[in-house]
Specification:
By secondary structure, the protein is α+β, with helices and mostly antiparallel strands. The chain has seven helices and eight strands, in the order αββββββββαααααα. Mean pLDDT is 79; it is low at 2-7, 13-22 and 117-139.
Length: 243
């Protein structure tokens, strides 16, 4: 049933001018510190030999699921759902965030990795913590009255429309309007924040959205969109002030 809905969305895009989905996009993952990894997209392994840069072509549909298995690192695979955009080649950097956890962050095509030295694998204790966090879903405890979050299919359509906006200012206001008018989960908000290039814009929208999301108990996933520890600390202080 989900596949039928996905194809219906694709057809709708094509009829409304979103013909970019008629030809597959590409996805490139770059390891920031030279880590070797294996890339899985929609359940298929894309490189037989681990490498520090992998590109996949001919990706179709409104979204695709990505997993990165880091060779020699005692951590769970880095998983991410990438929401497609017409005529786009996606680039993500594999690196550690402010908490020291491996994440995938969107970058430009001319991104230069920070270094080529292999990263030191984290201790096994972090692996257990990461796995537990990945499987635990905290109940919705929001103050917004939001009770019917967007489905993956609904979100994919709105995401494509919003990301196509040409100016950063309109993207910020559009994300705020979306989380106010629709019921958005913390993970969906995370994907929306990745659209915004400026760290300050991400922080502004993250603070605004806290009282509007479906599951504020899972708001910790928003930390991953920030490159600086100061932004994470600022968001945490704001969230605590609203509890």
């Amino acid at each position: 049933m989900k596949k039928v809905l996905f194809f219906s969305i694709v057809a709708a895009f094509m009829l409304t001018g979103g013909s970019g989905f008629s030809q597959g996009n590409s996805l490139t993952i770059i390891a920031d510190n030279g880590e070797k990894f294996t890339l899985e997209v929609n359940g298929d392994i894309e490189n037989s030999t681990p490498d520090d840069r992998v590109t996949v072509y001919n990706l179709f549909g409104p979204s695709f699921k990505v997993k990165v298995f880091i060779e020699g690192a005692q951590v769970a695979p880095v998983a991410k759902t990438v929401f497609n955009k017409p005529n786009t080649d996606f680039y993500f950097v594999l690196h550690r965030n402010a908490k020291g956890i491996y994440v995938l962050d969107p970058v430009s095509s001319d991104y230069t990795p920070a270094g080529t030295a292999a990263a030191t694998p984290p201790p096994a204790k972090e692996t257990q913590t990461k796995s537990a966090a990945a499987t635990e879903t905290k109940p919705a405890t929001g103050k917004s009255g939001c009770s019917d979050p967007l489905t993956t299919e609904e979100f994919a359509v709105l995401y494509a429309q919003l990301s196509a906006r040409p100016f950063a200012g309109t993207q910020v206001s559009a994300v705020k309007n979306l989380v106010t008018d629709k019921c958005v989960t913390s993970e969906q908000l995370q994907e929306l924040l990745y659209i915004l290039d400026m760290e300050s814009s991400r922080l502004d929208v993250a603070k605004y959205s806290y009282l509007h999301v479906y599951d504020p108990g899972n708001y910790g996933v928003i930390d991953e969109v920030f490159r600086s520890a100061s932004s994470v600390e600022s968001l945490h202080k704001y969230v605590e002030s609203k509890k």
